[in-house]
Design goal:
- Strand 1 (21-23) and strand 2 (29-33) form a beta hairpin.
- Helix 3 packs across helix 11 (227-238).
- 44% of the residues lie in helices and 12% in strands.
- It is built from 16 helices and nine strands.
- It is globular.
- It is an alpha/beta fold.
- The N and C termini lie far apart (49 Å).
- A four-stranded parallel β-sheet has the order 5-4-6-7, sandwiched between helices. Strands 1-2-3 form a three-stranded antiparallel β-sheet.
- The protein binds adenosine-3'-5'-diphosphate.
- Adenosine-3'-5'-diphosphate is lined by residues 64, 66-72, 75, 158, 162, 165, 259-261, 264, 298-302, 306.
Length: 334
């Protein structure tokens, strides 16, 4: 299998040479691949995952762009889906970061071209995974099977500010973000991790309109406004609706509270240590590739209008125009 891996490595090296390259405003190198900007550190895993991942009809997939509320959605979906599988006072979220409980299919498992033992990689059944890939680039078996997808997006202004702040905070830890001016420009041009932003959002939006039983399309701002009704919607969609009894006992409110920003950011597990993505394995560059993010960086402000503290009026005007142009006639609004 060593030879197989080496020849895949050669093949990959050849392949990437054909892709356009750029640098994200976060400092990450990006390759333009299948119509989106893929971080170079995960591209190989993405391709392997596309080749090998076999979805099963019972799988649940969380899909997001980075900084759109992935951590929150992982917590909400985990708690709802597995409600009957752990004692309520022992929710694993109290002792584990959501990214430890719900792994990314591509870069947590496929840094080499080998098929990992995915049967035993989730704590509970049905399997729950997450992914940042655009809809069009999902492994075929995900699109062709009956597995369900929960998609969460966020107002582009909030997303941009969250993105830029996150990586500014990680400066010196392998990320060298640029000024907000430059970041803004690149975001508008669609050059950021798994972007263009609007292609990502519209890809899932259209798919959800065609197959509403397969894809649940959610918006961060709506969840902030009314978490309880969205939790019920989520549970219904996942096929585990809350019983009348559970609702009477306040289970919905309990999940909302455990997963709330205020609760999660103050948990011991989220205040210290770091989250490792990927397993330590050799990659095409010959270096060990995992990336490590301090857990507290996943919890910043969780506000919906924080962009107004950063974006100057001309930026807001330009983004509003872009939103209008891109979402025109789609039925989607921010
Ligand atoms: P801000 O930077 O605006 O504060 P992701 O999880 O996709 O990386 O997204 C991160 C954003 O979600 C950050 O937004 C973060 O503060 C916010 N967030 C993290 N945990 C949250 C929670 N439990 N509820 C609501 N928002 C949360």
């Amino acid at each position: 299998s060593h030879d197989v891996e080496e020849s895949w490595d050669d093949e990959f090296q050849q392949l990437v040479q054909t892709f356009p390259k750029d640098k994200s405003f976060t400092g990450m190198n990006l390759y333009f691949f299948q119509g989106f900007w893929c971080p170079s550190i995960v591209l190989k895993a993405v391709i392997s995952c596309q080749k090998h991942f076999q979805a099963s009809d019972s799988d649940i997939l969380i899909a997001t762009l980075p900084k759109c509320g992935t951590t929150w959605l992982k917590a909400l979906t985990f708690s709802t889906l597995y409600l009957s599988q752990f004692a309520r006072e022992n929710n694993p979220l109290l002792t584990y970061n959501p990214h430890s409980l719900v792994r990314f299919i591509d870069y947590d498992f496929y840094l080499n071209d080998t098929c990992p033992d995915l049967e035993n990689c989730t704590l509970y059944q049905p399997r729950l995974f997450s992914i940042h890939l655009p809809y069009a680039s999902l492994p075929t078996s995900i699109k062709d099977s009956n597995c369900k997808i929960v998609y969460l997006c966020r107002n582009p202004m909030n997303t941009l500010i969250s993105f830029w702040s996150f990586f500014s905070r990680l400066r010196g830890e392998g990320f060298e973000p640029v000024s907000l001016d430059e970041a803004f420009e690149m975001f508008c041009q669609g050059i950021n991790e798994f972007g263009p932003f609007f292609d990502h959002v519209l890809g899932y939006w259209r798919a959800s309109q065609e197959k509403s039983s397969k894809i649940l399309f959610l918006q961060y701002e709506d969840l902030k406004e009314d978490i309880n009704s969205h939790l019920k919607k989520l549970a219904m969609f996942l096929g585990v609706p809350f019983t009348e009894e559970e609702e009477k006992q306040g289970v919905v409110e309990e999940i909302a509270k455990i997963c709330s920003f205020e609760n999660m950011k103050d948990l011991e597990v989220n205040k210290k240590g770091a989250q490792t993505f990927g397993y330590p394995q050799e990659t095409f560059s010959g270096k060990t590739k995992t990336f490590v993010i301090p857990r507290e960086a996943f919890f910043r402000k969780a506000k919906t209008g924080d962009w107004s503290n950063y974006l100057i009026p001309s930026m807001v005007e330009r983004l509003e125009k872009l939103i209008q142009e891109k979402l025109d006639n789609s039925g989607l609004t921010f």
